[in-house]
User: Fold these one by one.
Assistant:
Number 1:
Amino acid sequence: MRLRQATSPLGPLVVFPGALGDFVCLLPALEEIRARHSRAPTLLCKVDLAPLVRATGIADAEPIEDRRASWLFSPAPPAEADACFGGFASIESFTGKDVPEVECNLARWQGPRGRVHPFRPLEPMHLARHFLRCVAPQEDWLEVPEPRLSLPAEVAAAHTPSLASESRPLLVIHPGSGGRAKRWSRAGFGEIARRFARRGQGVAILLGPAEEAEAGEWRRLGIRVIVGLDLVAVAALLATCDVYLGNDSGVSHLAGAVGSRGVALFGPTDPQSWRPLSRRIAALSITPWHRYEEGAPAAAVDTVDHALAHAADLP
């Protein structure tokens, strides 16, 4: 975080500890905050999110891992914390709810313009609606705007992996998720990939850092595997593919935000609370759920295949 003088007001600061999917759910709330201020917000977020935030222009971004973020929780923050946090137009923190040190520090730096919100809702609702109700509690937000992210053309061109050798339409499959229980059958994903390939369509398997060790298993199926991308490149890839398939994951939320058509698969989690808020990404509940290590029956694969065909035709 850049140190500034308290006499030089900035835009609002949003302190946000969430991962990729949480960040996409925050986007409508960020837009609401932007609309209330003449200057763009600064997002204090996970270090891997910061380049994506900056590239899309939704906010400035600084890593929450920076030592100065710890001043929020300090019982006696140094004097330079006043210059660091005191110059923002307001502070919305999604970490530190009911932590006396955080609430005391925000009151000292911002008065009533410093607010602390719970990171998760206290009652069942979609996470995006929860974030909106935190920053604009005067509205009920029964209708939540779709999260949208857009990369400038030159940024997208510089980061998109080369897909010239792939057939079209191109299906990108992301078989990962933040929780292993949320990962649908590897055999099921593999059969979907084989079906697309048999039709002469392109297929690419997108693996994140947690799944890179599985690359060899996918390559043995003769499927192109894409690994090692940062989130800017992932967003660029998803914005250019023709159809997407994934689990309940941050990447599925990102796919919806950049305009992909496709399907997000749900088993142990509730799509009413966690689905990507995009009319182009269908939330498909699979019952019974077949975990990543298990096989998937033909009927389940057929259901996913049909849902993908429908999603590919969405406007």
Number 2:
Amino acid sequence: MKLAEIQAALRSRNMGAWLFYDHHRRDPIAYRVLGLPETLFVTRRWFYLLPAEGEPRKLVHRIESHHLDGLPGSKQAYSSYQELGDSLKAMLRPYKTVAMQYSPLNMVPYIGLVDAGTVEMVRGCGVEVVTSGDLVAQFEATWSEEQIASHFAAQHSVDAIVAAAFQEIGRRVHSGGTDEFAIQQWIEEAFRREQLTDEDDPPIVAVNEHSGDPHYAPSSGRSAPIREGDFVLLDIWAKKNTPGAVYYDITWVGSLGQPSDIQRKIFAAVRDARNAGVRTVQQAVAAGQKICGWQVDAATRAVIAQKGYAEKFVHRTGHSIGTTVHGNGANMDNLETRDEREILPNSCFSVEPGIYLAEFGVRSEVDVLVRGGAAEVTGKIQQEIVII
């Protein structure tokens, strides 16, 4: 646990303390930030108060009084719910504001892990509960130099695999045929050769109308053939198979033969929206201005709306990226939620607008890394539909 850094972050945000709470391991964020074993057997409620100044405090049940012994701070035990309430109130008395894994109106459900009753109990102690969203982003979704290096190592391999996958599709189609699942399995084998992992969440290979389904996934029992004239979408994410490595996540599209006019039109709209989102981040970061996830989504969505396809862009613009492909930093979202978390230095996220029609869909995804006062796309950028 990074005690001094967390306390400095609390002071910079004028927060009195960060109050961690769990029961039956419902809050994995707490375990990761505090460095607790994720296999801890928890049948009773515990609280850990990490103040902006001074010594942390623990509140644990007497039959599981050892659970937080690996963390710094004083300890108090309880047995009855009355004793729990009295002890919690005394622990919180010095503070006006505490952060918790709480999201107002559940606008960021990835953060809203503390149940409503517990929030009510804490408020009943006379303190204001605020969201820990930006704190979680800082301590869960910012990367070390080693992690940044792992991202670029994955990028180098994945970009090459994507290019080779399109070539393999063409070779197989022209020499006898293939299908979505076969190409997915070919990509998985390429991951193994390159010491990459997707943690058993395989890539998307989607043909024609399947590409119009944002989360379509082929399987051995559901796989469309790939033929001459087809439109193909590849959504591929992977990280190096080493501890602490972070993901690289991209989406490209291609056509077996010349794409149709409507395919070119839809791709151009998605590409322009993607570029607008990236440019919005780059300009804000270069100017030293705070920018939140919802603002990036608004920029991409405005381009697609101007093209007349607003109703066909049915998901957020992008997501935080970390040791899991969907990380705990700011998402680029002003549709599914309004993500007001700040885009932080040393964080990475996808920009992936899409337009989905009945016959086909287009998504174009890049990863953006913020560091050193700049924002950069970390891999190759698709500017035209790949002709397979």
Number 3:
Amino acid sequence: MWHRWVDFCTSLKLTMTCLAAAMALIFAGTLAQVHLGIHEAQARYFQSFFVWWPPETRSFKIPIFPGGHFIGAVLLVNLIAAHAKRFRLAWRKLGIHLTHAGLIIMLTGGLFTDLFAVESHMRLAGGETKNYSEDPRRAELAVTDLSHTEWDQVTAIPAAVLRRNRVIDDWSLPFRIVVQNYYQNSQLKMLRDAGNSAQPVANQGPGALVAVQPAPPVTGVNEGDVTSAAIEIVSKNSETPLGTWLVSAALGAPQTFFCDGRTWMIAMRPARYYKPYSVTLQKFTHERYPGTEIPKDFSSRVTLKDPERSISRDVLIYMNHPLRYRGETYYQAGFQKDDSATVLQVVRNPSFLAPYVACVIVALGLLVQFGYHLVEFSRKRRAAHA
């Protein structure tokens, strides 16, 4: 039984099956991008262990095809097992060993990148300072305690928690949050413009004058969902409902209420990643080709300040010249249309060196393997002539 399992894990048939499944998955995922968008298609097809059907329901799903994580994991196990089974310590096998090692590093690095890499954006206007970046594809409900004069206590609740949980009871809050309605994407209209049959989902704040309509998720690369939710605040001490508020990414005005002798602010915002340092935009430069609106070059001069490490320095960020600091990389990604602000892409990838190392090892392995056979061929040819 053990030998059959080893033969199965090291067989070439398993390799070819995984490669064929990967090709079919790439084809299906590429077609799905037309209707789902690139990010949703990646999540459903390539960043999952199985492709589920139907994807919209939550109660009952069945796996219909292996996902990208599953196929990659099986390929990695197959490669390591086959290499370990056929490993022979000899100079003539050195090139093959190096090539396999490079492929293993490449697959492992890709899996780690997919699991642990984080991409976000930092939008900075002239002279603005920030110590956080934002993920425009993820939303969170921020509950802020405003009772302190020198600092704010913020409790961030991811939108995925609002979607799954009906009641949110956090130890840091003196009240419970009851989710009445949740909208992954929505359209907000004033009641006077929404028709006579429109009803508000909230009775407190500006949401009491707004009608909410669900909308299909956006599929554009540079577009984002307008996540909204109707939440009821219930005091833990008196078990008294304080009202229902509409929190939405489309509502710019902050909303506050009073509970447990303190003032609280609630807002739906993009998910934030706070840094132990700050970045200040000193100057943004945008050059265009003469007579056109096509960008020729755009760059951002920023000041990086890290009190923990006593660092304060100016850095110029432009195309192919990012800022690398504390495991994060800042790229010049875009800018506001009126050039009033710059957009920096912030990437944290703990395995960003894996592809470079893997390519070098694979190239070295191929050179060694072909070089060894070339030397052997030349030696046999000289011996035959002699």
